[in-house]
Design a protein that fits this description.
Layout (H helix, E strand, L loop, with lengths): L1 E5 L3 H13 L3 E5 L2 H10 L4 E5 L7 H8 L7 E6 L3 H9 L4 E5 L3 H18 L9 E4 L2 E4 L4 E4 L2 E2 L4 H12 L4 E3 H9 L9 H14 L7 E4 L3 E4 L4
Parallel strand pairs: 1-2, 1-3, 3-4, 4-5
Antiparallel strand pairs: 6-7, 7-8, 8-9, 10-12, 11-12
Helix pairs in contact: 2-3, 4-8, 6-8
Length: 229
């Protein structure tokens, strides 16, 4: 699978490129936001590793412009302790984030969790057995698409996974811990708001179709997809 790393730290890019290549990935590196955006828009990648602090265009602007036309999975590389960067990145449509400095193995685990979804797509046949329909929401498990009253929802890969999990469990409470482990492939850390932000993004996109709230927050527990009207 082909990955794109957009980071102005050439030393880090070289180290991670060697490490990820040894794990079977093909890695391309770009060192400024302007060129990174151009590369991301002109080619197809399984995943983009995107630094926040970049020359020419910062990571947020790259992600914002990318999301206008593409839903390529993105992991944001943020400064340690910068909660605003993480939250803002998730609001713009990042799939996950990892604070610098990070352990190479942790980064690999995040990359595998996301690229595993892509591998899973090819193992599914496109049949009605792979479709779920609950309260105006249709999930096509084979095509990894979601619809509201036959209108497509423009979801990132992570947003799709979260919604699909909630719809599969319609009427049942799904904890944030379950969502984090099943969707992001990692344990939910203390004060980690990534799941909240993904759910918030999904709600906003569903609300554009003027239907009633489908995802209910169970304070201190998790979320439940409303099964009945």
């Amino acid at each position: 699978m082909k990955l794109l790393m957009i980071d102005d730290d050439t030393g880090l890019c070289e180290l991670l490129s060697e490490y990820l290549t040894a794990q079977g990935y093909q890695v391309e590196c770009v060192h400024d936001g302007e060129q990174g955006l151009k590369q991301a828009l002109s080619q197809e990648y399984a995943l983009i590793l995107l630094d926040v602090m970049l020359p020419k265009l910062d990571g947020f602007e790259v992600l914002k412009q990318l999301r206008q036309t593409k839903l390529t999975p993105v992991i944001m590389l943020t400064a340690k302790g910068e909660d605003f960067d993480r939250i803002f990145g998730l609001e713009l449509g990042a799939d996950d984030y990892i604070p610098k400095p990070f352990n190479h193995r942790e980064l690999l685990a995040r990359v595998k969790a996301i690229t595993r979804r892509i591998e899973h797509i090819t193992s599914l046949g496109n049949s009605t057995a792979n479709k779920l329909s609950v309260n105006n929401i249709v999930i096509n498990l084979a095509a990894r698409e979601a619809y509201v009253d036959e209108h497509p929802l423009s979801l990132t890969g992570t947003e799709y996974e979260v919604l699909a999990l909630l719809v599969k469990s319609a009427g049942e409470v799904v904890s944030k811990e379950q969502i984090s482990e099943q969707v992001l492939g990692r344990r939910l850390a203390s004060f980690d708001r990534s799941i909240d932000m993904h759910v918030s993004n999904i709600r906003k996109k569903i609300a554009e179709f003027n239907i009633t709230e489908r995802i209910k927050t169970m304070r201190g527990t998790g979320y439940v997809f409303i099964q009945g009207e």
